[in-house]
Amino acid sequence: MKRTISVLGSAAVSVDPDMARTTCGVHVTGPNAHDVLRRSNDALHAVVEAVVEAGVVRSDLRTSGPQLYPAEHGYTGSNDLSIVVRDLASLGAVIDTMVAAGGPNVTMHGVTFAIADPTAHLPHLRRSAMDAAHEIATVLAQAGGAAVGEVLRIEESSGVPAPMGVARMSEARFSRSTPIEPGEQQLRVDVNVVYRLVDPA
Predict the structure, then answer these.
(1) What is the mean pLDDT of the segment spanning 158-187?
(2) What is 178-200 written as a DSSP string?
(3) Which residue has the higher pLDDT, 164 or 116?
(4) Distance separating alpha carbons of residues 61 and 63, to the nearest angstrom
(5) What CA–CA distances, in Å, run from 188 to 12, 105, 118, 182, 185?
(6) Could you tell me if 67 and 84 lie in one domain?
(7) How many domains does the chain have?
(8) What's CA 164's distance to the chain center, in Å?
C-alpha cells in the first residue's frame, strides 16, 4: 500500500500599494434634454483636461456614459470617469483638481488601492510556501515513524485581496490636499502538497 501525506503550506507578505483608482462623475438636471447633455459633457471635459494637466496620462482615463433619462421635472444627465493614479504622492492633489474642475455637479465614488504587478512577489512566496509545506510534512511524518519522500502532487492557489481603502474628503475646502492613507495589502500563496512517505533512514 502506497503511503502518502497531504499538507498545506502557506506564505504571505504585506506590500504597499503603488497605484490607485478613483471614479468621479458629473450629475446634471434641467428641463431640456439637449441642455442637460451639453452641460454634463462640458463638465466632464473640464475634469478630463484638468487631471491630464495635473499629470495623469490619458491612457489611464476611462469614461462611462453619457447617460440621459427623464426625471420628474425634466431630465437628468450624468457622465463618469475612472482615473488611475500611479504616483500615490499626487493622489490627493489629483482628487482636489478633479473636484474643483467638476464644479457643483461633481460626484465621487471613493478610491481603491492596488499593486500594479503582484506577480513580481509570487516566486519568493511560492518557494516559502513549499518550504513551509515540507517542514509540516517532516514533523508529521517523524511523529508517525516515517520520513518524507518525493513530491507526488502540488496544487497552488494565490491571489490578492479585494482592493481596500477609501480617501476621505477634506473638511477645509481643500486648504490642504485630500488626506490619503493607502495602508497595505497582503499577497498570499497556498500550496497543497502530497508527499510519498518512506521508511526513516
Answers:
(1) 58
(2) PP-----EEEEEEEEEEEEEE--
(3) 116
(4) 7
(5) 4, 41, 10, 19, 10
(6) yes
(7) 2
(8) 7
Q: Report d(CA 82, CA 80) in Å as an integer.
A: 7
What's the pLDDT at 84?
Answer: 95
Q: Which residue has the cell 477609501?
A: 166
According to DSSP, the residues that pair with 25 across neighbouring strands are 80, 107
Coil, strand or helix at 95: helix
Q: Residue 37: give the domain boundaries.
A: 19-114
- Classify 167 as helix, strand or coil: coil
Whole-number pLDDT of residue 161: 54
Q: Hey, what's the cell of 32?
A: 431640456
Choose the most confident range, by mean pLDDT, from 28-42, 109-123, 156-170. 28-42
User: Which of helix, strand or coil describes residue 130?
Assistant: helix
In the predicted model, what is the mean pLDDT of residues 134-141?
A: 97
What is the CATH number for 126? 3.30.110.170
Calpha distance 116→87 (Å, rounded)? 11
- Give the phi and the psi of residue 105 in degrees, each rounded to 5: -100, 10
- CA–CA gap between residue 152 and residue 168 (Å, rounded): 51
In this structure, are 8 and 25 located in the same domain? no
Which of 194, 191, 189 shows the shortest CA–CA distance to 124?
A: 189
Q: Is 30 helix (H, G, I), strand (E, B) or coil?
A: strand
- Average the pLDDT over 149-165 and give the result: 77
Q: Give which of 117, 88, 106, 120 is closest to 39, Cα–Cα.
A: 106
